[in-house]
Amino acid sequence: MAADKYQDIRDAIRDLCAQFPSEYFRQIDEARGYPEAFVDALTQAGWLAALIPQEYGGSGLGLTEASVIMEEINRAGGNSGACHGQMYNMGTLLRHGSEQQKRAWLPKIASGELRLQSMAVTEPTTGTDTTQLKTTAVRRADRYVVNGQKVWISRVQHSDLMILLARTTPLSEVTKKSEGMSIFLVDLHQAIGQGMTVRPIANMVNHETNELFFDNLEIPAENLIGEEGKGFRYILDGLNAERTLIAAECIGDGYWFIDKVSKYVNERMVFGRPIGQNQGVQFPITRAWINLSAANLMRFEACELFDASKPCGAQANMAKLLAADASWEAANACLQFHGGFGFANEYDVERKFRETRLYQVAPISTNLILSYVAEHVLGLPRSF
Ligand SMILES: Cc1cc2nc3c(=O)[nH]c(=O)nc-3n(C[C@H](O)[C@H](O)[C@H](O)COP(=O)(O)OP(=O)(O)OC[C@H]3O[C@@H](n4cnc5c(N)ncnc54)[C@H](O)[C@@H]3O)c2cc1C
Fold first, then answer.
1. Catalytic residue flag (residue 242)
2. CATH 2.40.110.10 spans which residues of the chain?
3. Interatomic CA distance for residues 259 and 74, integer angstroms
4. How much is the average pLDDT of 16-44?
5. Which residues contact 61 (CB under 8 A, 6 or more apart)?
6. What is the average pLDDT across 121-144?
7. Which end of the chain, N or C, is surrounded by fewer C-beta atoms within 10 Å?
């Protein structure tokens, strides 16, 4: 691909990633391990603090630059899912935390002394219908007491802090169902074993994710972020950045698949010619490339709007859907045209195939994006 104005960032991430070749990520995947050395290297180089303003110790870059970082990690064969939370979860604290909270936490998050890798929203009985969540936080003097359960909460075992969304006013007592929820910064070292239990979920991707159980977990009242009752809106405020960064990761995956399969079909000889000479092989790869290129434009449009502080909900959601679809299409073509070898671990195709499949479902399912665009962009009737 031609150089763009982010080439310096691209080159720096490529250099860093070159120290962690495919074998590294393959071995971590096979061992269901965590890429600690890779995440440490990214942290020490300051890349995960890209979105933290300089006054709090970060590099104060825009979402565009941050998205290039994520894209390049995935394009190099890695998986940003191990650490993307550290880049965007702090946004809630940055936008809605008090000055005191920001001064206390952000510099340590920026330096990597503390990891804020986890955000606990999803619950087993309510799923995407977040306003119905059942976890409660009840104020008792200078503390909140939390009871309930979360599911699919990622990176808890590799984090020091976690943002928690819980209901502070019963649903029956609020006028709008989106009111009455609050967010808290949970110190995981204080919480685990003292009201909070973590149960890892074995899953298809090597994604460290967990069930969480809260049994009278006490959180100091000073760890409430922003105003009590407004937590759901605060979470929504962070979603555009998250969606756009995930879109960039999918784009990185898509490039990885297309580079990989293009090289392979040029070299693999069957029936006395490279398989890539067959249009039946060329066209699915080319179609995926075209869709990926279109998704990339939408991703940069979302980034540009976000960085200009303009509304970007539609673009962020559309970028996520287009990029997740394009990377999945590229993944399918890559697997298909590697034939049997696509299923062998040593080619890394099956690993990346599993990793990119996640983004059809999490952090938001494709259907829910369609629903958002139908209602908020096209003005179609609200369906739920
Ligand atoms: C590996 C992994 C990591 C995750 N990490 C986190 C995390 O760190 N923090 C966190 O809070 N959550 C996390 N999640 C949860 C993730 O955000 C949810 O799985 C996702 O939002 C879908 O919610 P659900 O699983 O409850 O599916 P459900 O809400 O049960 O929906 C199931 C499917 O039904 C369809 N559907 C549901 N409602 C509608 C509708 N109204 N119209 C059309 N279709 C609909 C969708 O296709 C959806 O995929 C993670 C999930 C996974 C798998």
1. yes
2. 116-229
3. 12
4. 97
5. 50, 51
6. 98
7. C
- The reply to whether the predicted model has a pTM over 0.90 is yes
7-111 — its CATH code? 1.10.540.10
H/E stretch holding 168:
none
Which ranges of the chain does DSSP label H, i.e. alpha helix?
7-18, 22-30, 36-44, 63-75, 84-88, 90-96, 99-111, 188-191, 231-267, 279-307, 313-337, 349-357, 366-376
Q: Residue 251 to residues 70, 281, 321, 369: CA-CA distances in angstroms?
A: 9, 21, 11, 18
- CA dist., res. 345 & res. 351, Å (int): 7
- What would the CATH number be for the domain defined by 233-376? 1.20.140.10
Q: Whose CA is nearest to atom 17 of ligand 1?
A: 363
Provide the pLDDT for residue 4: 85
Residues flanking ligand 1, CB < 6 Å:
119-122, 127-128, 152-154, 203, 205, 207, 209, 358, 361-365, 367, 371, 384
Q: Is the peptide bond before 220 cis (omega within 30 degrees of 0)?
A: no
CB-based contact 258:292 (threshold 8 Å): yes
Q: What is the pLDDT of residue 123?
A: 98
Q: Range(s) for CATH 1.10.540.10 in the chain?
A: 7-111
Q: What is the mean pLDDT of the chain?
A: 97
320-341 residue pLDDT tens: 999 999 999 999 999 999 999 9
**116-229 maps to CATH 3.40.50.300:** no
Task: At 178, list the tokens.
Answer: 């989106």
Confidence class of residue 84 from pLDDT cuts 50, 70 and 90?
very high
Give the pLDDT confidence score for residue 348 in this predicted structure.
98
Residue-wise pLDDT tens digits, 11-24:
999 999 999 999 99
Q: Which atom of ligand 1 is nearest to the CA of 207?
A: 1
Q: Distance from the CA of 109 to the center of ligand 1, in angstroms?
A: 28
- The average pLDDT across 256-285 equals 98
Q: Which positions ≥6 away from 239 have C-beta within 8 Å?
A: 316, 364
In the 8-state DSSP scheme, what is residue 381? P
Residue 262 has a pLDDT of 98
Written as one letter, the residue type at 173 is E
Residue 113's Cβ-side half-sphere holds a number of Cα atoms within 13 Å equal to: 8
List C-alpha distances in Å: 45 to 37, 41, 57, 65, 102.
Answer: 12, 6, 13, 15, 22
